[in-house]
Amino acid sequence: MQNNTDFPLLFEQTKPGRTGYSLPPLDVPETDLSEVFESDYIRSEQAELPELSELQIIRHYTALSRRNYGVDSGFYPLGSCTMKYNPKINEDVIRMDGFSHVHPYQDPKTAQGALELMFDLQEQLKEITGMHEVSLQPAAGAHGEWTGLMMIRALHEKNGETQRTKVIVPDSAHGTNPASATVAGFESVTVKSNEQGLVDLDDLRRVVGEDTAALMLTNPNTLGLFEKDILEMAKIVHEAGGKLYYDGANLNAIMGYTRPGDMGFDVVHLNLHKTFTGPHGGGGPGSGPVGVSEELAAFLPKPIVRRSGGEIILDEDRPDSIGRVKPYYGNFGINVRAYTYIRTMGPEGLKRVSEYAVLNANYMMRRLSEAFDLPYAQHCKHEFVLSGRRQKKLGVRTLDMAKRLLDFGYHPPTIYFPLNVEEALMIEPTETEAKETLDSFIDTMLEIAADAEQNPEIVQEAPHTTVVSRMDETTAARKPILRYIPE
Amino acid sequence: MEFRYLPMTEQDKEEMLQMIGVEDTEELFSDIPEEVRLRAPLGIKEPKSEGELKAELAGLANRNVTMKTHASFLGAGVYDHYIPSIVDHVISRSEFYTAYTPYQPEISQGELQAIFEFQTMIAELTGMDVANSSMYDGGTALAEAATLSAGHTKKRKIIVSEAVHPESRQVIDSYGRGQHLEIVTVPHKEGLTDLQALEELVDENTASVIIQYPNFFGQVEPLADIRKIIDTQPKTMMVVSSNPLALGYLTPPGSFGADIVVGDTQVFGIPAQFGGPHCGYFASTAKLMRKLPGRLVGQTKDEEGRRGFVLTLQAREQHIRRDKATSNICSNQALNALASSVAMSALGKKGVAEMAHLNIQKAQYMKKQLEAHGLQVVFQGAFFNELVIKIDDDADALNDHLVTQGFIGGYHLGRTDDRLKNHILVAVTEQRTKEQIDTFVREVAAVHAKQH
C-alpha cells in the first residue's frame, strides 16, 4: 500500500496508452499466427509491465539513483570489499562497439581483438599471482572458489585419493568459503585462529590428515593480518597431501610485494571487481578468474584461451578439464575493464597501489585506536578490524555507530564480520582516497565515540538524515513481499 | 612516475608514517617472510597514458567483426536486439554502478527498489509468484535450479532435454558432479523433446525435468504435455528455461504449472559483450521462496511507517548459513538486472508484446524465403525467432563466405551434436530488415546452389 510519503514504484505511475519505446514497423508480409501456434500457447493476458513515457522513466531512475550511494558519492571504507575508485576510461573502453557488440559464437578468426585481450589479461594475471595458468571463466569470486575446489577434487580423484573429502577453512573466513566447499561436494572443517589473529598452527596440524582435500586461505587474512607462517602452513598441508587454495579477496594488499604462487598456493581466484576496479555495480556483475599451478592446469574449465601459431584460439580439447562452469567465456565486460586498469598502472603502479592501501589502513588504525578497542595491535595490511565492545558497554552498539556514519555522508565499514571479533568494525580505506578524506572520516568516528559517552541517544537513534530510517527487517522476513501486487 | 588514481603526496606520506611510528612503508611489509618477498618488479606491461591506451585498445576492438559492422543472424542464446538509448544513460549513473550490494538500506533505497521492480517484472513475464534479484547467467541459473530441485525433493536424478542449450547442459553436468547428481539426457526428436523417451525416463527417483521453452532450436515445446508426464510422479518438478522476450507472445511457463523458471535477460538491454556479463533470472512458485538461491529484495516499512525495501530472507544465504548453504552465490548481476529493468520499462506492457511479435513475423518470413529458394528448414513445429537450415555445403565455409558479404551467419549445430552436422541455427530479430533477410537468403541459396 502506498502512503503519500512513499516513493512511487514504476507500476504506480503507469497509464495505459503511454509508451517509452520505438520499434520499426513490420516490413515483411504478415503471417497469420493462429495457423502457426496452438491457441493454448499464445499468451492470453499481457504481462503487467509499466506504461510510461521516456522522460517519466528517466525521472524515475534518476530519482532512484539519488536514493543510492556509490564510491563516486563518498568514502566507502567497507572492509573486505575493496571499494576503490572505478576509473572512467574502463567504462569508455568496454563501450567500444568492438568489445560490446561481439557475439561469443562468431568465428574466433573474426574476434581476434577480443581474444587477444583475454589472452594478454591471462598473461598479466599469471605474472601478478605467480601462477602457471589462468582461466577467465568464473563469473565472480564465489564462482571462482567453486571452480578451484572442483579442480582440486578432480586432481585427487585422478590420483585415486577419493577419501579427500574435507576442506579446511579458518574461523575468520568469508561465508562463501564453506558454502563453496559444500557446493563442490566437500565437508568443511574449521581451523582456529590464535591470539595474534593468525591461523593456529597446532590446530592446523591437528585437523589435517588423509581426508584433507585443501586448505582455503586469504592472505592477508580477514583481519587484515599477514599469515607470516604461510610457508610452514603450506608445508603442513602439502605433506598431508592436501592443496592450498588462495582466496584473492585481499590481493589489494600485496601486489608487487609477494605472490600467492611464491607462497606455495596451488589454486588462486581473483576478484577483478575488487582489486582490479571492475565496478561493484550494486552487487555485480563481478569476475573471478582462477589461476593454478602446473600440476592442476589440465583440470582448468574449458575452453582455454591460448595462442596457436599466429592466432588466439578457444581450445575445447581438454580431456581432464572439470568441464564448463559458465556458458561462453566468462564476464568479458568486466575483464576488459580490469585489463584497462592493469595497463594503466603497470608494474610500479600496482605496487604503489598496495603500498598506499597498506599505509592508509595503518594510519587509520593507529588514529582510531585512540577511541576504539584494537584486538590485534600489529601492523595491518590493507584493512583492519576494531571492536566496538567499549561502546557497547555504554549501550551503543556497532550497528548504531554504523548508522550514525550515514548522517555524516559516509558509507559505514563492514560490521559484525569477521565473526571472531566482538562488535566488529572492519575498515578498508583503499589506496584511492586522499589523506583529507581519511582524516575527516577519522574525526567523525572520534566524534561518534565521544557521543557514545556523552550523548548516546543521537547515536542509538541514527540515522537522522536519510530518506528512510531503520527498516523493519523482521517483518520483511516473516511476511515476505517480494513483488508488487496491485491493490 | 605519477598515477592519477593515487592521491597521496610525499608530504602526506611522511606525516602518516610519523603518526604510525615507522620509518618507511617497507616496515609495514616486514611481516612478509623474505623467502616469499618479490624483490624484482612485476613482469607485466609498462603503463600507458590515457590517450595512448585508449588508442591501443580501440585498435584491438576494431579487429573484431561486430553486430554493428555486420548484420547478425547469429543467436543460440545471445541476440542482437533493440537497446533503448536510455538504458546506458541510467546504468552509467555512478550512484548505481559504483555502489556495493545494498546492505545499508537507508542509503540504498534506489538500488533496492529497482531490484524489487525487476523481481516484479520477471514474475509477471514468467507467470510465477516470485523471482530473485538475478543470477550470473541463464546457464548457471539452470544448474542452480537442478540443485534446488534435488534438495527440495530429496531425489538425485535430473532429466535434461537435449533441446536445452548445449553449454547450459554442460554447466549442469559440472554442477551435478559437485552435488553427486545423476544427470540423464532425454533426446530430441524432430527438434522437440522426445516425449515417449521422457515418459520412460521419469520415475520415482526423478527430482526434476529440465526443458527449454522455446528450446535451443527455437521450437516451442509442448509444456502442457510435458507437465502431464511429470505429474505421473507426485514430487518431480518442472524446470523451464525461457527466453523472457518470447514470453511477450507465448503463454508463460507458470500457466503450465512450472515449478521453477529461469533464463537470461540479455534480450532486454544487455549487449552481447562476447558472452558476458549477461543476467540470469530465477523465478519460482511461492512454495519455494525460502529455498531460492541468491539475493532477494523485500518490501517493508521504516520506523516512521514509510515504505522501503531491504535484502531479505538472508538466512538462506552463504554469509549466514556458511557450510549449510545450498548455493554459494554472493555477487550477482545487479547492474545488468538494472539494465534489463530499464529496457523492460521502456518497452512496457505493449512494447514487449510488439517486439516479440516482430521477431516471430520476421522469422516466419525468413522461413518462407528460405523454402522458396529451395533450402531445407528441418524442424516444422511452431518456433519463436530461430530456425534450423540443413545445407549440403560445409557450414563453416558458408559462414566464412557470409562474413565477406557483411553478415554474421548462424550457429553450426554440428559443433556439439553429431547428428546435426551442417545444420545451421539462424536467428532473426526485430533488428533485421526485409532487405537484410532477402540478401542473406540469396547468399545462402547461391552457395547452396553452387554445390549442386
Automatic annotation (TrEMBL), chain A:
Q: Which family does it belong to?
A: Belongs to the GcvP family. C-terminal subunit subfamily.
Q: Which SUPFAM superfamilies match?
A: PLP-dependent transferases
- The enzyme's E.C. designation: 1.4.4.2
Name of the molecule in the record: Probable glycine dehydrogenase (decarboxylating) subunit 2
Gene3D superfamilies linked:
6.20.440.10, Aspartate Aminotransferase, domain 1 (3.90.1150.10), Type I PLP-dependent aspartate aminotransferase-like (Major domain) (3.40.640.10)
Could you tell me the Gene Ontology terms of the biological process aspect for this record? glycine decarboxylation via glycine cleavage system
Q: Which domain of life is it from?
A: Bacteria
**Enzyme kind, highest EC tier:** oxidoreductase
Task: Write out the GO MF terms.
Answer: glycine binding; glycine dehydrogenase (decarboxylating) activity; pyridoxal phosphate binding
Reactions the enzyme catalyzes: N(6)-[(R)-lipoyl]-L-lysyl-[glycine-cleavage complex H protein] + glycine + H(+) = N(6)-[(R)-S(8)-aminomethyldihydrolipoyl]-L-lysyl-[glycine-cleavage complex H protein] + CO2
Domain Glycine dehydrogenase C-terminal residues, every copy: 354-454
A Pfam family this chain is assigned to? GDC-P
Source organism of the structure = Terribacillus halophilus
Q: HAMAP family per the record?
A: GcvPB
Query: What GO cellular-component annotations does this UniProt entry give?
Result: cytosol; glycine cleavage complex
Query: Does the keyword field hold Oxidoreductase?
Result: yes
Provide the assembly information: The glycine cleavage system is composed of four proteins: P, T, L and H. In this organism, the P 'protein' is a heterodimer of two subunits.
Automatic annotation (TrEMBL), chain B:
Record's SUPFAM superfamilies?
PLP-dependent transferases (SSF53383)
Subunit composition?
A: The glycine cleavage system is composed of four proteins: P, T, L and H. In this organism, the P 'protein' is a heterodimer of two subunits.
- Could you state a single Gene Ontology molecular function term? glycine dehydrogenase (decarboxylating) activity
Residue ranges of every copy of the Glycine cleavage system P-protein N-terminal domain listed in the record: 4-441
UniProt keyword Cell division present = no
Q: Which domain of life is it from?
A: Bacteria
Documented EC number(s):
1.4.4.2
Its catalytic activity?
A: N(6)-[(R)-lipoyl]-L-lysyl-[glycine-cleavage complex H protein] + glycine + H(+) = N(6)-[(R)-S(8)-aminomethyldihydrolipoyl]-L-lysyl-[glycine-cleavage complex H protein] + CO2
Q: Keywords of this protein's UniProt record, alphabetized?
A: Oxidoreductase
Q: What does this protein do?
A: The glycine cleavage system catalyzes the degradation of glycine. The P protein binds the alpha-amino group of glycine through its pyridoxal phosphate cofactor; CO(2) is released and the remaining methylamine moiety is then transferred to the lipoamide cofactor of the H protein.
The record, for PANTHER family, names:
GLYCINE CLEAVAGE SYSTEM P-PROTEIN, GLYCINE DEHYDROGENASE (DECARBOXYLATING)
This protein's record includes keyword ATP-binding: no
Pfam families tied to this protein: GDC-P
| GO BP annotations, alphabetical order | glycine decarboxylation via glycine cleavage system; nucleoside metabolic process
Q: Which family does it belong to?
A: Belongs to the GcvP family. N-terminal subunit subfamily.
Give the source species.
Terribacillus halophilus
Q: Would you tell me the protein name for this molecule?
A: Probable glycine dehydrogenase (decarboxylating) subunit 1
